[in-house]
Structures are given as structure tokens and as C-alpha cells.
Fold this sequence. Notes:
Layout: E1 2-6, H1 10-18, E2 24-26, H2 29-35, H3 39-49, E3 54-57, H4 63-74, E4 80-85, H5 88-99, E5 103-109, H6 112-120, E6 125-128, H7 130-135, H8 140-154, E7 159-162, H9 168-177, E8 181-184, H10 186-191, H11 196-212
Parallel strand pairs: 1-2, 1-8, 2-3, 3-4, 4-5, 5-6, 6-7, 7-8
Bound molecules: erythose-4-phosphate (E4P).
The site of erythose-4-phosphate has 11 residues, from helix 7.
Subcellular location: Cytoplasm
EC number: 2.2.1.2
Keywords: Cytoplasm, Pentose shunt, Schiff base, Transferase
Amino acid sequence: MKFFVxxxxxxxxxxxxxxxxxxxxxxxxxxxAKSGRDILEVTKEICDxxxxxxxxxxxxxxxxTMLAExxxxxxxxxxxxxxxxxxxxxxxxxxxxxDEGTMVNVTLCFSANQALLxxxxxxxxxxxxxxxxxxxxxxxxxxxxxxxxxxxxxxxxTQILVASxxxxxxxxxxxxxxxxxxxxPPAVIKGMASHILTDKGLDGFMAxxxxxxxxxx
Length: 217
Ligand code: E4P
């Protein structure tokens, strides 16, 4: 499973990238707003660091303006994936951009039928939001399993990009289901390294190091 990092925080991207943990980056208007930076400038900076797909989201709601925005975003770098919402206008924009050879990430997906439409429209990635479904007591991971089954039934190339990930368990579940990509905030990716028994075990070892005066250097 590929790891995308869901942030526009340059330092966080650099830190994870240095460890080989970043196969791509996703941003959205809220993350760009949080960065306090110009969308074109910060997206370019991310593309200079990461060679994998970098999602940049359109902000228009109508297809014509979305397409113009998408074409402008695509010019930032060859690894841009234009992010469009799962609306009818978003699907129209997806079809045109993908026919032009631009990667498209269709976002704000909350149902298997929406994912099916995105695949038919030539999406490179479909982004189902598991955390926001869990927030309203609908099992987000069940949706990932349904999309996996549908895409495999018909051999769609669209990659399932699990989004709105909130916990390390979401990462494990996405990997077990066979999602192609998971995008997560830096803290969730770093949190995957934590285990209470690792901490407890290390405390025990350190106590014995001190008691026995073990030295290596
Ligand atoms: C990624 O593409 C999404 O924009 C992101 O994962 C949304 O996460 P949130 O539901 O925590 O805002």
C-alpha cells in the first residue's frame, strides 16, 4: 500500500520523505488555508520535494471554471493530480482532464455508486472519506471493501485512495482490505510506530543497562 501524506506542512513532508514514507501528498482547501500560503506556491514547493502524485484541489463549483482551474494546477508540475469533488461537474471535469492525460483524484466520495461513476469517468484516484463516515456511525472501512470488490469485478484501474484517516487502525484496515493508497496526517503515520509493549520493553532494557553499566561507545 502506498502512503500519501495529507498535509501542506513542508517540514512534516520533508521529515517523512527522508524516511521513505511519502509516496505522494494530498492537500485540500482546508489544509492550504491552514498553511497560510498561496496554493500555487506551496503546491510547487511540495512537487519539488516529492516525485509521486501531489493532489491539488480545484475551488470552483461549475465544470467550466473547474476545468480552467484544473488545467492551471496541472501546469505546476508533471506529478500534479487535480482533485475534483464528486459532483456531476466534478465528474465532467475528471473525464476531460483524464482524456488530456492529467491525473485526477475524485474526492469527497461517500458511496460505492459514487466510486463507480468516478472510475467510469477515468479517475486516477478515488478518495473515500472513512473518518467522516465513522463520525456519523457508518462503517467507513465497509465502503472501502465494497469499492475494492466492485473495482476488482470489472478490472477498473482507478486506485482506491483511503482518505479522512484518523487512526493507525484505519491504516491497518486499509492495508488488509487491499486499498492501493492511504493518505494520512503526519501524526497518524508517526503514530503507527507506537506500541505500549515496545515502550514497556524498552523501559525494562534501560533499567538493566543502568544496573549492569552496559556501554557500547
Ligand atoms: C484527503 O484527500 C482529504 O482531503 C482528507 O483526508 C480529509 O480528511 P478529514 O476528514 O480529516 O478532513
